Amino acid sequence: GVDVDERTIASARTKFPEVTFLCGLAHGQMRSLPKANVVIASAILEHVTDPPQFVSGLAELLQPGGVLFILTPNARSFHYWVARSWWRELLSVGEHIFLFTPASLELLARRSSLEVVKTITDYDALLPPRLPGSFREVALWGWTLTRFVVKAICMNVPHGKSGDILCAALRKSAPQGQPAAPRRG
């Protein structure tokens, strides 16, 4: 596992001592990582400066027949439709460089020689903001509450649009005559 947050890595190492975790940027670690049957990129793609290069690098990590799972915010969501230009800030102020729709993520996958197995959208957990405990948290609490209210409305109003989170399963084709990676469940 690779993450930029040292606290997250420390927690993961405690919970899963048999797994190797590296702290740093994922794209900086790719050349040193072993090939895998499954690669998960959760909440990363929207932060990278070169998504095609990043997805191609992830595809190179896959064994033939392996699957890449990508989770990223969905710019075709009802939440985006309601909030428009400030939706990006509702997600993470100044941190998201690119936003994706199901169609743009599928195009990116095909350009990286990955087969689109499935794309779905959903909402992540709606967690109420906790009461502020510091001056900094007091300053941010109004913004956090606004995010919560807008998202709660979007999740509970009937609409025909998709959810906030875009999930894609992408497969690396096995060369002719070579078996695909084993599949479970």
Describe the structure.
By secondary structure, this protein is an alpha/beta fold. 37% of the residues lie in helices and 22% in strands. The chain contains 7 helices and 6 strands, in the order βαβαβαβαααβαβ. The chain starts with a strand and ends in a 13-residue tail after the last strand. The mean pLDDT is 81.
Secondary-structure map:
Blueprint lengths: L1 E2 L2 H10 L6 E2 L2 H4 L6 E7 L8 H11 E12 L4 H6 L3 H5 L10 H10 L2 E9 L12 H22 L8 E8 L13
Parallel strand pairs: 1-2, 3-4
Antiparallel strand pairs: 4-6, 5-6
Supply Rg. Answer: 18 Å
Low-confidence parts lasting 5 or more residues at pLDDT below 50? none
Q: What portion of residues belong to β-strands? A: 15-25%
Q: Provide the residue-averaged pLDDT.
A: 81
Helix/sheet category: alpha/beta
What characterizes the major β-sheet?
Answer: 4 strands, mixed
Number of helices: 7
The strand count comes to 6
User: In whole angstroms, how far apart are the ends?
Assistant: 22 Å
Oligomeric state of the chains? single chain
* Strand order in the sheet with the most strands: 3-4-6-5
In percent, how helical is the residue content? 25-40%
User: Outline, from the CA principal axes?
Assistant: globular
Topology order in helix (H) and strand (E) letters: EHEHEHEHHHEHE
